[in-house]
Amino acid sequence: MKPIVEIAQRAGVPEEDLELYGKYKAKLAPELWDKVKHRPNGKLILVTAMNPNPAGAGKTLTTIGLSQALNVIDKKAIAALREPSLGPCLGMKGGATGSGNAELLPADDINLHFTGDIHAITTAHNLLAAMIDNHIHHGNVRGLNPKKIVWKRAMDMNDRALRNIVVGLGDGNGTTREDGFMITTASEIMAILCLSENMNDLRERLNRIIIGYDFADQPVTAKEMNAVEAMCVLLKDALKPNLVQTTEGTPVIVHGGPFANIAHGCSSVIGTKLALKLGDYVVTEAGFGADLGAEKFFNIKCRKAGLTPSAAVVVITVRALKYNAGIAIADLQAENQAALEMGFANVLRHVENLRGFGIPAVVAINRFATDLPSELDAVIAMCQRNSIEVAVSNVWAEGGKGGKELAEKVVRAAESNADTFRLLYEDSLFVKEKIETIVKNIYRGSSVVYTAAATKTLKRIEEMGLSHLPVCMAKTPYSFTDQADRLGAPTDFEIHVSEIRVSAGAGFIVALTGSIMTMPGLPKKPAAETLRLETSAEAIK
Amino acid sequence: MKPIVEIAQRAGVPEEDLELYGKYKAKLAPELWDKVKHRPNGKLILVTAMNPNPAGAGKTLTTIGLSQALNVIDKKAIAALREPSLGPCLGMKGGATGSGNAELLPADDINLHFTGDIHAITTAHNLLAAMIDNHIHHGNVRGLNPKKIVWKRAMDMNDRALRNIVVGLGDGNGTTREDGFMITTASEIMAILCLSENMNDLRERLNRIIIGYDFADQPVTAKEMNAVEAMCVLLKDALKPNLVQTTEGTPVIVHGGPFANIAHGCSSVIGTKLALKLGDYVVTEAGFGADLGAEKFFNIKCRKAGLTPSAAVVVITVRALKYNAGIAIADLQAENQAALEMGFANVLRHVENLRGFGIPAVVAINRFATDLPSELDAVIAMCQRNSIEVAVSNVWAEGGKGGKELAEKVVRAAESNADTFRLLYEDSLFVKEKIETIVKNIYRGSSVVYTAAATKTLKRIEEMGLSHLPVCMAKTPYSFTDQADRLGAPTDFEIHVSEIRVSAGAGFIVALTGSIMTMPGLPKKPAAETLRLETSAEAIK
């Protein structure tokens, strides 16, 4: 690991614009933006994926590896990534910083408290919650309906016991009401932080958060709770992007990490825009597969921030192809050419969808040590048969060198892209029309069914004048449909919208299909049970 | 503000042992201890206070000012202070970093997230809580009784609605049971962090935490929940002391901040021991008045860490003297010599108590701009009449210069102290005997009355073999008695112990008198409503 001052130098960031957090992490001072904002933007590359098997596709790994590979072929590249959430790190998932020879460093720090951004968001979130209950307790001048508070509490932890709770029990402890905790990455504040252009934008968005409804059923905002200035103070450092490095010393901006279901699943706009001024190529990723991640990256993040991506990478794996053909997880290792062919329909559709946004797509086969050469060859042949650019990515084993072919093809795609990027729908459509557009064009479903509650909320949204907002789909990542077991490239299905939520601060309408969990639980044997202090830390006297 | 690297230099700390958090805050690397541990210790000065009026006595201010004043008279002095809790800063209290010309810098950062220590403690606390409910959810192999879980959840927030809650409602969300949140500073982990000598000690203490009881009513520990290694990882940086500076550039170690009622209310042992190697004088403080703060500083912190204080400062104010004579708050400003005389009984008793520990005491009259010279003179005369060293401290207005006389008297007291420090009671006494010793010798009460529940727990403590632990009294800070309105120097009263708690990890038995609140609420107009971003932070583009 090199000192972060050195990495910053590599990215052209002067030492005076670094706020160091130890020797290997730094926040980038707001003054830096003023110095670089007049530069032309680098090219923005989105790394997305096919629908994954439950083990994941290696999107973060590929993003890191590709940024290294671009440097190997002498392009000045920077990655822009999301911050890992602590809850899943202690739960099922382990880290979220890549691995092998394409890893973010210092991985442990980044996976744990990092520079405190998520803790700051938790605190701002819970301050607002406390001030809501306090407002009701001290006379409720605003006339908040305690049964219609939609602002829950937040914690960066996997803790199922906090999903549904009753608060305010006992004498003098406020109003008794139902409540619940979400994991902090699901907080609207996380989405807001990631979509804000600057502190003033952050403040305006926080002001607009709808925290509940009054007795006349009118929305009540965070602004009315007098909490927003304090929330801005709590978030002032969290709004500054973080700089770290990869195993090969490639600079990486790691900033923000909203959920990819009830939020848009992309790293911060501030971090991405800064990266575009510092690198000729900026590699970023979006959550889940392209049906959710890329669609929201384009229709929410790029729309709001005015970003123009130049190319997309679709990460696929041999295992995920077979999984998408319906092969059981236990049988994914066995050679099965027929299954590869069948599962390839999934890849094909994602590539078509990306082309629909006017974006050239390159398929990256994320290679596992156990992959059979015959199967890799078959997948390459399938891509070529369909005129899809493809490269095997071996960055886990080889680092940047293992991504050279991918990097070259990405550069070619990006250079040949004639600025044809287009959004899928106009702001002016009704929310239902936007949802239908996504369902028909991206998922390839036939129709959308709404619950009565969802329909009622959609009507409220029109009354509130919020129809112009883009839609944030919350859906299973495993299928184009809303059912996790309908794999491959299904057609002719209904999408069931169970609930509509308004994230007026973030600036999108969330359409929930099925039940989306915003507070994960710990598994029987949590990752926390096997975490160990390294020797260095243990030496604390 | 000087760069922290420069302040460190002043304290003889090489740059390589600093882990910077921005330009003005740093953590001290564990390696530093090895370099300095063979040095002789500096002299340890405890700043404590008379029973305060509700506005407080200015203990932190005096601690900071005295450390500056010692430097003014050419002593190499360092302060060792507690970290402010965010909850009260956003609630009633505003900051906790001194003020005027005796302030910690950067005050805003220290009052808010600082270096993330309290967030790390919150996280470690809630990980343990989540793993307890998860253990029950996944089969409860250990046989935990869900109705006898004593480990609550924690948040660094004033939030009365979370005091008493029900968790685990709804299908698949764990076992429904009563629970509650405490403010993080009340977490046993905060007390543990502050009493630990090193990482191994921290681990052993965490292992010993009693989280609840099984169906056979036997204690269950954190160790049995397999959470402790992960908690150590989460706390590895929080265990490192933080270095900041005062308005005059005096180095200050700010580390840890446990409650002064259900915990011992002192900054960390690690920070204090390190400070004693770096300074010839180390000025530290303990929470509340000397009846609680100093008693626990001596009998818990000094006992456990083997520290030998050289002198104590008793901070008094003209207003607190009158308040202790029963004068109403609205009338505290009016000249009232009789009330001063009457209130002085309170000071006298605290000084006597300190002398009982073998510690010379210097009274510091913390001067307010509104104090009448005639009253200041009267208080000085009363001290002199009783052979008590006294100095007016004007550090708020004048900084270190305003504490010169105090500094000189403290140095004289410390130099003349012939190592006569002694603890109040032996480990070997029964818990009831320890409590009685404190009540009779410090509070000057006549007897102790226990509830049936408290008596039952005391019996359990003997059965568990924990009688050797010192006692941590949780009592109102406004009176020597357990009733806030019995001011001055009352005698002949009963102390009512309502509940006994075991902090087996921290290593003390908590005796609660009356109802002690571990989760504060927000006032009608919280300080959060008036927090504002400074211009510099607002410039974020």
Automatic annotation (TrEMBL), chains A, B:
Matching InterPro entries: Formate_THF_ligase (IPR000559), P-loop_NTPase (IPR027417)
UniProt keyword ATP-binding, yes or no: yes
Pfam families: FTHFS
Annotated GO biological process: tetrahydrofolate interconversion
Catalysed conversion reaction: (6S)-5,6,7,8-tetrahydrofolate + formate + ATP = (6R)-10-formyltetrahydrofolate + ADP + phosphate
Pathway(s) where this gene product acts: One-carbon metabolism; tetrahydrofolate interconversion
Keyword annotations from UniProtKB, A to Z: ATP-binding, Ligase, Nucleotide-binding, One-carbon metabolism
Gene Ontology terms, MF aspect: ATP binding; formate-tetrahydrofolate ligase activity
Keyword Nucleotide-binding: yes
Entry EC no(s): 6.3.4.3
Family, as annotated: Belongs to the formate--tetrahydrofolate ligase family.
Identification of the protein by name: Formate--tetrahydrofolate ligase
Source species of the chain: Brevibacillus fluminis
